[in-house]
Predict the 3D structure of the following.
Amino acid sequence: MAKFDPSRPDFAPYGLSCERWTPGPMRRADRHNEIEINLLTGGHLTYLIGGRRETMTAGEIAVFWAAIPHQVLSVEDCPPYFVATLPMALFLQFGLPEKLTQPILHAAVARGPATEDDPQLLARWSRDLEAPSTESQRIVLLEMEARLRRLSAHLRPTSPQKPRGRGVAGMSSKAEAMAVFIARSYAQPLSIDDIADTVGLHPNYAMNLFKSMFGSTLSQYLTEHRVWHAQRLLASADRPVLEVAMEAGFTSLSRFNDVFRRSCGCSPREYRKAHRLGDRVT
């Protein structure tokens, strides 16, 4: 039975996996560059994901991008539950509908009704991946893609869909690499040139590629990560707002206040008052 190890390095990969996890509060947030699929068979658990509380419940399947800091805060009547992880590169290569991919890539949790077959399906993935062969991995990936496509059928469209074939894998991997670089480095001073240099692309081409894959500009995506970090600190730590702004990667308090209000509809202090977690974070 898997259990979160608070000493694991940030962004250490889980790879293609599916295991039953022992439910319990996490001592710190985790981050890894995989899509995470959660399936509870009873009770519920509450995460802090990107600065927001998200409660997963039995009877639904929930999917999110685990590069966003996520931390289980509390559990109630929750037996061991399934956690499957899918490397981001493979997720992008599936060419799934944008009404599923776009919310996930912008820190939302995609949810849909679980089926009576889901526990057996994820149990089979777990068995197949205990000592995986190339063929068993391929079968699991096909079933994961099919299950995610079924999930997308229950979601509302977020934007017009663009056809994406599997031939875009090379470009999607560069877009993914830029997204991961931002997820790892957003607290540092970053320019568009810095981000484009990581994948060997001209800045203009890098910006166009990223927007075509993720639906936002590099600057917007960088700002989103900084705001998510600030939300998490405001909710979980009693630290000065200026210190929160600096740690999240903002260069001035005025800039932080302006961006935060436009993103969240309130000031950082108002956000802290409404979302303070206090002693519930362990």
Notes: Strands lie at 17-21, 34-39, 44-49, 52-57, 60-65, 70-76, 81-87, 110-113. The chain is about 45% helix and 15% strand. Residues 179 and 221 are 8 Å apart (CA to CA).
